[in-house]
Amino acid sequence: MSGLTFEGVSHRYGSVLAVDSVDLEFRPGETICLLGPSGCGKSTLLRLAAGLETIQDGSIAIGGRTVAAAGLHPQVPPEARRVGLVFQDYALFPHLTVTGNIRYGLPGGRAEGEERARRILADLGMSDLAGRYPHALSGGQQQRVALLRALAPKPRVMLLDEPFSTLDEHLRHEVRMETMSLLAGSDAVTVLVTHDAEEAMLLGDRIVVMRDGRIVQDASPDEVYAHPSDLFTARLFGPVNRYEGTVRAGSVSTPLGTVAAPGLAESSRVEVAFRADGIELGDPSSAGEDGLRVQVRSVRRLGVWTLVLMTPLDRTREARGAAEGAESVSIQARMPGSAPISSGDRLALRARPEHTFVFPAESVAGAPARERVSRIR
Ligand code: ADP
């Protein structure tokens, strides 16, 4: 049985094409993270599924039943779609207690609904909140109640729009984990909108990357991280060192070394991305003849990470083969923890091949997956 499907869905606000020919199929029990920068159409897709926007093009089905289609009038109304919604601003009813909020939308009489709401709260050890009003709850508690309210009627589809973005850092992690354990028992399709790649990696069984209203990549978190389909997607996961070059004899020269460019046309312009997390720094004596030597210009300790900015030190064979002015190139590395590196240090640099990618220059969203670099010479 299918959970939630979008077929050929496009949506405009005036002249803005917010969603552009989207086809997606989500299975029951699956958690999908829609990942992309602000304005790429994630919320519009959610609002269309919920019935908060009238469909203009294409069709949407929930549990195998068409709920919205360009030629279908009227659409199935939001309350008849069995969809649970959670937004970043909680949207609890301020005049109802926690029990009242959870009871809202449950079928059956008031007493039955209240009993069910009380049971839900008791099961989660939250009975002490039952009689409180939203204003007397913390942000994290409000978000939990909003989630329980959405889950109580056992929806087929749970739609969560940036549900953790207003919570502060430590609470965000706690509420994320709790949300996942609450959702784990549900066989609903869960679609969570986020612009945070780490959150998508943590919560999604599947990540759908969006850009300018289109699907750029649709794959498992491991796959999206290891084989981003373009530079845009690679950058969602952290800083990269990016260089342009030209394919010569199947390779491209960059200030960080020559990389193989399999499958890319000879003489074509390409972009090479080296993840800052994939840069290894070592003793200069450990660098081989071809190794790149660098000088550290600044070190910023950020707790979990240390950000190291460097410039190439000498014109090795690699640097000579690269673009002119390699010495003026700034290279960034993100090292775990508090790396024992100081400004002025001279080090050997190696870029790990699995964190190095080559894409056709000006790669466009929706283009086929690029070849990943197989090795650095
Ligand atoms: P996201 O959720 O990825 O931030 P949205 O779906 O909210 O993106 O928005 C996609 C595009 O549609 C943006 O360019 C946004 O400005 C535009 N948009 C969204 N809602 C409206 C609206 N009600 N009226 C006009 N333009 C809108």
Report what the structure shows.
- With 377 residues, the chain is α+β, with helices and mostly antiparallel strands.
- It folds into two domains: 4-226, Rossmann fold, CATH 3.40.50; 239-375, OB fold (Dihydrolipoamide Acetyltransferase, E2P), CATH 2.40.50.
- The protein is built from nine helices and 20 strands.
- The chain has helices spanning 42-50, 98-103, 110-123, 139-151, 169-184, 197-203, 221-226, 231-236, 317-321; strands at residues 4-13, 16-26, 31-35, 57-62, 65-69, 83-87, 157-161, 189-194, 206-211, 214-219, 240-246, 251-254, 257-260, 269-275, 279-282, 292-301, 305-312, 331-336, 346-351, 356-360.
- It has a six-stranded mixed β-sheet with strand order 6-7-8-3-9-10, with helices on both faces. Strands 15-19-16-17-18 form a five-stranded antiparallel β-sheet, with no helix packed on it.
- Helix 4 (139-151) packs parallel to helix 5.
- The chain is globular, with a radius of gyration of 25 Å.
- The two termini are 49 Å apart.
- Adenosine-5'-diphosphate binds at residues 13, 16, 18, 36, 38-44.
- Adenosine-5'-diphosphate is lined by residues 13, 16, 18, 36, 38-44.
